[in-house]
Write a structure and sequence with these properties.
The complex is a heterodimer of chains A (about 300) and B (about 350). Chain A is an alpha+beta fold. Chain A is about 40% helix and about 25% strand. Classes of the chains: A alpha+beta (about 300), B alpha/beta (about 350). Chain B: InterPro entries: AAA+_ATPase, ATPase_AAA-3, CbbQ/NirQ/NorQ/GpvN, ChlI/MoxR_AAA_lid, ClpA/B, P-loop_NTPase.
Amino acid sequence: MQALQRTRICVASAMVVILLSACSGTSNQALRDFQLQTPRPFGYVIGDTIRHRILIQIRSGMALERSSLPGQGRLNRWLQLNEVSVTEQDGSDGKKYQIDFLYQQFYAPLEVKELSIPGFMLRFQQHGQTLEQPVAPWPFTVAPLRELVVRQDQHGEYMRPDQAPTLLDDKEIVQRLLMALTVATGIAVRLAWLYGYLPGLPQRSVFKRAQRKLQNLGLQQLPQALGALHAAFNGLHGKPVFLHKLAEFYQSHPEYRSVAEELAWFFDYSNCYFFGDASTMPQENDLQKIKTLCLHCREIERGSR
Amino acid sequence: MTSTQTLSDWRTSALQLEQQINQVVVGQQAAVRNLLIAVFARGHVLLEGQVGVGKTTLLRAVAQGLGGKYQRIEGTIDLMPADLIYYTYLNSEGRPCVDPGPLVKQGEQLSVFFFNEINRARPQVHSLLLRVMAERSIGAFNREYRMPHIQVFADRNRVEKEETFELPAAARDRFFMEITIDTPSDDAVLDDLMFNPRYHDVDALIGEMSASQIPYYQLNDWATAIQQSIQPTAALRKYALDLWKASADPRAFGIKLHEVEMDQMLQAGASPRGIGYMIRAAKVRAWLENRDSLLPEDLQAVYAVTMSHRIFLNSMYGYRKDELIPTLIDSILNQIAAP
């Protein structure tokens, strides 16, 4: 009975010791995490690059000894280390390192062959004490680029055709081209509208037509000349324009204010000619003034005045 | 032919009269101008408007400005034609007497006859008035009374329709103009009308006008002279003709109104008398504007007041009259070009 009780006490105390030692080990362990992340270990050919990443978590206060990392440059006859980069991050639960290696292998095997990236020893320092962590060699297989017995063709050694170069990304260029074309088309349409080339929009060419009619008219056809210009103004305004309604006309077509004086003269002259006593004979100069007014209106219509 | 100087002097008097009326009746410049045109074209005027907008005051001011005798009568449902010509009573000695009524009492001196609320009078009264308006004479007491200077002003309000008799087309056509008097819209004028005690006593207000500068008995001669002094050109005749034709057949001039079958809209357009009145009014306007030529703007200025009561809609569009007639007039003026 006593022996059984002693055994129980022993087992219980042993469990307490194990538990305590486990707890203290977790919190005080120098190296808490070590991972070597590697790509596939097969299917490499000459010139291929291989990335390795090491993730380490260590106790605060410890530091990686950078000289323990392999140096950049040629490691052996067929292996070169192109890049080594170390990022360090301090946290509440210790220090984290991420170490990236970019290897390039230049082995040209005749058949599939296993090679190995050599291992090395990582060292950490704390208060003059050194902790070492081995990084194991990494075996992988390389394959030849071409068959062992090289094919011959009529010109001698058989050459594979060159790989077609990849096309440059032209999506953005095409988009810009389309935008430019849209803008150019818009400008062309506006210009055509301004010049009165669009058939469906006659209001932009009313003075063009009036000008064409006026061109061949002499003083004898003064009524037709006045009528043509009146028709142009009426067409532009959408309803008849009269001298006493010029203010209303300017409200809807303010751009014609710049020739207000000429317009007032024209409507007054037309009133006198058609409705006045006709005591004054029309002068050649009057017709010229009408033509000039039409020209000015045409310029306003085109937007060039 | 009256000299240019005389016409110019007359114009000065006319514009003075206009100015005086505008001081008495404020905010009605357009209506006053139209009334003035009617006075110098010797046409009868029908005023239409809301109650209390100053129609009677306006007419009294015109009568005061013209001088001559003035008579008025109120239209009522029991008013008979005879009431305009004579009235009977027993005198202080108990003998029955017959005295001339308002139309014949003043004889040839009657210059303004004001018929208030004309649409309350019966059609019999309207027909008597038609003769007076058209012929300026009336038969009574076995003889003919002439009133060569009479000008009839009538008014009717738009509010009531009960116990009223709509004026027949013939009566309306004899009115030279139908002028609508609206409440002024200018805030300053409204403020003045509300708070200025000057407008409380209409008699005193009318009394402010100075004595007439215009001899009413010469107005007929003036009107003839004005009409003769202005000769329209061929282009204007064409424009006036188009305006007339458009009042009868707007569709032919490309006029289209909203939700209206244009070929079914009109019963009748303006009469020849109506278009003659319009030209008369336009000439007077040109004279008032100091011009010796008739312009399209003169026709446009008087087109609505002389034509809108002469265009008769089909009954199916009658209920939209207040909306359609002004729109039609606007469309005609905005569609027909001159030249």
